[in-house]
# Entry
Amino acid sequence: MANVHKHLLNYFLDEVALKESQKDQMRRRRSANETRLKNGLTAQKKPAPLCFVKQGSYAMHTMVQANAATSDIDDGVVFAKDALKGERGAEYTPLQAKKMVCDALNDKEDFATPPEVRNNCVRVYYADGFTIDMPVYRQVERGNETVYELAATEWKESDPEAVTEWFVDATKKSPDETNGRQLRRMVRLLKAWSKSRSSWSLPSGFVLSILTNEQYPHGGWKDRDDHALYYLVCDIHTRLAASLTVTRPVKPYDSVTKSDSDADMRNLRDKLADAKKTLAPLGDANATDLEALEALKSFFCTDYFDKAIEDLKNNNKAEAMAAPGFIRSGADEPQTQFFKKGGEGRYA
# Structure
């Protein structure tokens, strides 16, 4: 049976996981953006934020190199409810709260494209394509309970840290604690695959995270990331063949897919069907390492495995040349062995 776990893990470390330089740049931008907002609010005599909350793939550590430069990070900003009021004491609407944040961030000297108010956040654009999304929350005291409400089309209860806590807890199903844990590696590998062809239109990384967790068993596949990837591709496809709807794993437990026939979800189901066939050698007891590596090369659309593939081909050739009965021609090509009829010896 093929075993290409180490090759796949090396691919993850070299080509998928973020480099420290990329992480540092994101941290710097996040910190600079928070400072810009605080300074802008002060200059406009607006309320100061209570805190900032990391969210999304940035907080879950599921970002991948494939789109690190043009991706976004989610950095929620929280205000006290009583602070979000107009001059006459009327509570801010969600749109007013987001516009306040957008105006405070709008430093024309820093951005060629000004920040933009969107449905669930304020988006900050960088010249290289990178963005920072800032969801705006208000902290509400309800008796002994503190809750957060997101400025969407209306104020709606939403815990900015709940998804991160859910995912971190989910990763504990992994059989290891190294390299981010296996479940997180699988999410990132599937995200890297989903971004490997520019023509594809597939669902968000959040959807892939939910689906991966749904199908990932307790204990995972110890020391076999190749098996984990293959069986997750198969199981997620089977799940999507039954239903294309994906539900948020935390309150309000609403659907994160547009409809039960979402075009991106149909694309994901169909691409996974193809991927099952491509990765079949990873689950075939009779497959060779060479076949498994060629499957990974095709799946990720990469030349990363080319050196290992070439080495295996050369090793196979060397072993064949060293086999008993192998006869060298002038071109160093093996000639077929045959037995002389009526005789007992082996001839070439």
About this structure: The beta strands are 51-55, 72-80, 116-117, 122-125, 131-134, 136-142, 145-151, 155-157, 338-339, 346-347. The chain has two domains: 5-15+179-306, 18-160. The first strand starts at residue 51 and ends at 55. Confidence is low (pLDDT under 50) at residues 330-348.
